[in-house]
Design brief:
iron; 39% strand; 2 helices; Fe-transptr_FeoA-like; Ferrous iron transport protein A; 18% helix; FeoA_core_dom; alpha+beta; SH3 type barrels
Length: 74
C-alpha cells in the first residue's frame, strides 16, 4: 500500500521510500521505516495531503506520497 492510497483517519507504518533523493529528505523529517503515520487531511483538490508522523504534521504532495510504501497498522 502507498501513503497516497490512505483515506482520512487511516494509519500505516512506513516500510520503505522508493525514491532515494526523496527518502533522504523525508528521513530527516522523521519519516523513518517502522514509524507510524496517520492521514489527517486532504486539500480540497486532493493535493497536498497532511500526515501526522513523529508527533508533528507534515504536508506532502500526492506524487511524493506515492513513493512511500506502507504496511498495515496493527
Amino acid at each position: 500500500m502507498k501513503l497516497s492510497d490512505l483515506k482520512i483517519g487511516e494509519r500505516g507504518i512506513i516500510k520503505e521510500i522508493t525514491d532515494l533523493s526523496l527518502s533522504i529528505k523525508l528521513m530527516e523529517m522523521g519519516c523513518l521505516p517502522g514509524e507510524p503515520v496517520l492521514l489527517e487531511r486532504i486539500a480540497p483538490l486532493g493535493d497536498p495531503i497532511a500526515i501526522k508522523v513523529s508527533g508533528y504534521q507534515l504536508s506532502l504532495r500526492k506524487s511524493e506520497a506515492s513513493k512511500v510504501i506502507l504496511v498495515a497498522h496493527p
